[in-house]
Design a protein that fits this description.
heterodimer, A: five-stranded mixed sheet, 4 helices, B: alpha+beta, five-stranded antiparallel sheet
Chain lengths: 115, 140
């Protein structure tokens, strides 16, 4: 999967996934595995930093759809940050901004987990 | 060059491995005729969604099956056709996705057709013999 990469870091008890490249039906399983691992480790405060994300298709959005309910019911959330306009537009076309916390910047997301 | 048609074709196996190649193929054509980066992004996504649906639904993830892709343009429009010989799609059975409900039910998918309709000006499904065609048109 040379056109997609993912890395995990921790800050203030929040898990941050840095995703970059192209997220499509081929690479979505990579994100899914990373989210599953966090949930298995009982890390439910999750930020997905999309600053390196160049492209997303609906298969990528489907991963967020599949896990948000579980994470929220366990007291956490998946917050999305640092999207470029093209990527945000896809989320927007499908109505995600009313149901997901999509923030300009990772710091805002960290702050909102503290509140 | 009014009236001149440019057509390119690509045949690929039905595998998500080839998604990036398929997107780059249509993007290169769109770029060569001078479309904006916004239009190129829309075309990349529309073809991705159509090809992914063929892989998953028409062929049910059988990677030896073939998909033919044609992209063409003239002075007034750009069109993309994807052809397969798998299970056909009935657009009348499709309803727009209710995101809130799908999240509650932990369902994913079912959004590709909706996106394609948003991104392109016309979408048609045709069946000729054993061949299914989705034809998507963007007015220029």
């Amino acid at each position: 999967m040379k056109n997609f990469s993912i890395a995990t870091r921790q800050q203030n008890n929040v898990s941050i996934l840095d995703i970059s490249g192209e997220l499509d039906a081929h690479t979505a399983s990579h994100l899914e595995n990373a989210l599953k691992s966090l949930i298995d480790e009982e890390s439910y405060a999750i930020i997905v930093n999309c600053s390196g994300l160049d492209y997303i298709a609906s298969a990528g959005l489907g991963v967020f759809m599949a896990y948000i309910e579980d994470v929220r019911s366990l007291g956490g959330d998946i917050k999305l940050t640092n999207m470029n306009d093209r990527v945000y537009n896809v989320f927007d076309l499908l109505g995600f901004p009313t149901l997901y916390d999509i923030l300009e910047d990772e710091r805002e997301a960290l702050q909102s987990f503290r509140n | 060059m009014a009236g001149t048609k440019h057509i390119q074709t690509l045949s690929v196996n039905a595998s998500t491995k080839h998604l990036a190649q398929v997107r780059d193929f249509v993007a290169a054509h769109a770029e060569s005729i001078g479309l904006s980066s916004k239009e190129i992004s829309e075309i990349r996504l529309a073809v991705d969604e159509a090809y992914t649906n063929i892989i998953k639904h028409a062929y049910k993830n059988a990677p030896t099956e073939k998909v033919s892709i044609e992209i063409g343009s003239d002075s007034s429009k750009l069109w993309i056709s994807l052809m397969d010989e798998g299970k056909s799609f009935d657009p009348s059975s499709y309803s727009n996705p209710d995101l809130k409900k799908r999240i509650k039910e932990k369902k994913r998918g079912g959004m590709g057709v909706y996106l394609i309709k948003k991104l392109m000006d016309q979408v048609q499904y045709n069946r000729k013999g054993e061949t299914n065609e989705i034809r998507m048109v963007k007015n220029l």
